């Protein structure tokens, strides 16, 4: 991702930095979600990772899940906290009060993210006692794959809505990377085949 991805001289000066950092945060969220899906959405792949490096990929899964919850929650932050401006959609919309439709998009996004923010508060940013002791009685609202897909889509839509008011262009937030989940899984399959062949030869 370019260092200044999302920066545009055509945007009002007072929102350029906020907009740029939001673009980079949303692109990073897309990358992490893509990695998460690549590693954990397919049962066959999950079985492979569990067989070869169970504890490592359990830690990676938990870390990705917690980090994505924190990232989404930050996008929903209030515009200011203790006198300091946040990088959030509410901060962006606070500078663009005259942009018709933006406040409604941001409010809808924040509402959509409620289950993730609740999870973040109870299990990531803090340890809620009831959630830890009685998880079956105090589960956070369901955070399904479709919800995260929609959150990623709407976050990008907000940024492109703002950009479209100043430039005749759209940004893409999903970027291909060398060494992605598919490359890693391919290497693991080769490793498993190698070790399986060695075991067969040793057993013969």
If you had to describe this structure to a student in words, what would you say it looks like?
It is a single chain. This protein has 204 residues and is mainly α. It has one domain. Helix content is 68%, strand content 2%. The protein has a two-stranded antiparallel ribbon. A hairpin with a 2-residue loop joins strand 1 and strand 2 (84-85). Helix 1 (13-40) packs antiparallel against helix 3 and helix 2 crosses helix 5. The chain is elongated.
Strand order of the largest sheet: 1-2
Strand content: under 5%
The helix-and-strand class reads mainly alpha
Given the C-alpha coordinates, what overall shape results? elongated
Q: Sketch the topology as an H/E string, one letter per element.
A: HHEEHHHHHH
């Amino acid at each position: 991702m370019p260092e200044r991805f999302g920066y545009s001289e055509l945007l009002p000066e007072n929102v350029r930095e906020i907009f740029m950092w939001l673009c980079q945060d949303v692109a990073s969220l897309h990358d992490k979600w893509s990695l998460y899906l690549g590693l954990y959405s397919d049962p066959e792949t999950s079985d492979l990772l569990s067989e070869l490096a169970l504890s490592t990929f359990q830690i990676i899964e938990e870390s990705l899940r917690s980090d994505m919850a924190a990232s989404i929650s930050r996008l929903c932050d209030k515009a200011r906290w203790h006198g300091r401006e946040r990088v959030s959609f509410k901060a962006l919309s606070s500078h663009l009060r005259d942009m018709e439709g933006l406040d409604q998009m941001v409010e809808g996004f924040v509402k959509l993210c409620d289950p993730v923010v609740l999870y973040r508060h109870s299990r990531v940013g803090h340890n809620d006692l009831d959630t830890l002791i009685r998880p079956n009685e105090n589960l956070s609202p369901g955070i399904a794959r479709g919800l995260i897909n929609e959150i990623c889509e709407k976050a990008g839509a907000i940024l492109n809505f703002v950009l479209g008011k100043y430039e005749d262009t759209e940004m893409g937030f999903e970027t291909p990377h060398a060494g992605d989940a598919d490359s890693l899984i391919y290497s693991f399959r080769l490793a498993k085949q190698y070790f399986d062949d060695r075991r067969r030869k040793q057993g013969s």
